[in-house]
Amino acid sequence: MVHPIFQPLVPLSILPSYACPLYILPPNNGFHPIFPNPSQSLKLVKPQCCAVLPSNQNNNFLLNDWSQLLQFSIGSQDYMLAKTIHGYLIKSGCEGDLFVDNNLVNLYSKFSNMNDAQSIFDEMPVKSTVTWTTLMKGYLKNGDVEYVLCIARDMCMVDEKFNEHTCSVVLQACRSPEDRFFGEQVHAFVVKSGLQENVVVATSLVSMYCRSGHFCCAERVFGGITVKDAQCINYMILEYGKAGLGDKAFQIFVDMLQSGLKPSNYTFTNLISSCDFSGGLYVGKQLHGLAVNYGFMCETSVRNAMITMYGQHGMVEEAERVFAELEDRSLISWSALLSVFVKNGHANKAFEFFLNMIQIGVSLDSGCFSTVLDGCSEWNNLKFGAQIHGLTVKLGHVSDVNSGTALVDLYAKCGSLKSARAIFDRLRNKTIASFNAILVGYLNSKVRDDEEDPMVFFSKLRFSGVKPDGVTFSRLFCLSANQACFVTGKSLHAYAIKAGLEDDNAVGNAVITMYAKCGTVQDAYQIFSGMNRDCVTWNAIISAYALHGEGNNVLLLFEEMKEQGTTLAKGGTKDLKISLDKHSNRRNRNIMNDALIIFDCQESSPFGL
């Protein structure tokens, strides 16, 4: 039986056998009825289209159905059929019609053939907003965001109007902090045009500001939406989770329920994934109960999120129970529980679980390998890690950036810098994580030649185009501190400021330690004074003064820390006691003894001081 929309094509078949692709049954050879042989189908160009197509009057009945045929070709990913219909439109003299050309631009964009889409666009005598937007969608789908922004600029130059779909596409193309200025211009147009209440546009604005790192702007846009739909709320929950603001995500969820909107499994997945904040376990358990009530426990994605959530809060047995009850286990499910074992220090369980995955035939990916290799790194188990290395080579994952970076980290942390560097050099795509992993090897290595000098290595990083992050600078500052190299440390500090990382707490804490070990505790205190302080920051500055034997300042800082309601990091009191005892002298021995007593009190108190 022939599908109704294909019925007009049957008479065009030169041989009856060529009509078989028109039937609901799968085609035998993939030929299309307009072409007498496959070579004409595969090498379709305009002259061929015109020559091959029959010119009888009966073709006119296709004029009413060609758009449906194009949509069918897109849905079935049948590129040959798409080219066939294009050929028919050329033969029929329909080219130049705005509706036809818009459909053709959309057609080739959906098949990722942007050269043909662009050619049709360039030859169009008349273009509409739909035309421009369709072309931009195609480039966005193919990841060519620069082309999207260029087309948007061209639209402005020819005074073509933006609609809500145009704004949404352009905002989705603003994927980096550098594109924020362009996104703000679109935002201004949205407000001027009264489109700020459009949920699709508003969601795109929220997404753009989140990607550019301006979360407060995203919150303002979200708060200004009068009527929010489930998709918009789900996206904001996702972004709050990424930003570590799970409590705010939960509040949005409460508002969602109060407004009468029904949550989806996607809502629960995002919410449960954001329960990594203080008190998140209590919220996570509530969400677990709600997921049962709403009937979402049969969704694999929800259970996977629960496994991760329980693992984040140290409830390994509960994570195992959720996994055991999961009937349709995906690779993500296996990887989630494996990660729980690794992050909670259950080495034996992790290794046994990984071996079980291999035995039952789970298709391993680079994520699984990187997880188990991270465990080998943490437990300094080079023997098992080397076996995993062999397996990654056998399965072809060794050159993958995730597995490769995990291998670099393994060998670097286990003291085998030569092996780490060999794997690093073979990585096709080096990321900042790869560079940071190799820096661990330099930190642990005592003997280096000129080629392995970390600063030479850092220079290569800069020239390769990879941007250093806070972890990079933190490790480099540790190297400078260990070598007491003030000039190098100060140069790195200047470069970190230039890179916009002066507000990064991890970088600031490392800078304090670096200046202290280089003998300039005044510079360390100056950095401390301008920082947002956490317990690690206080630990760093108190250790700095203890290092220089300044007991009075140690006590003053400790009292100031108590007044602000901060306690030292776990294990910090022990480190400080060692430092105070080591660097005290006769003149300040009594002050140091007082400090040691105070730290002993903090260590023994279950609630701090």
UniProtKB/TrEMBL annotation:
InterPro entries attached to this UniProt entry: PPR_At4g14850-like_plant, PPR_rpt, TPR-like_helical_dom_sf
Any Gene Ontology CC annotation: mitochondrion
Repeat recorded as keyword: yes
GO MF term list: RNA binding
Keywords: Repeat
GO biological process: RNA modification
Keyword Transferase: no
PPR repeats: 229-263, 299-329, 330-364, 534-568
Annotated PANTHER family: OS07G0244400 PROTEIN (PTHR24015:SF2030), OS07G0578800 PROTEIN-RELATED (PTHR24015)
Family stated for the protein in its record: Belongs to the PPR family. PCMP-E subfamily.
Protein name as it appears in the record: Pentatricopeptide repeat-containing protein
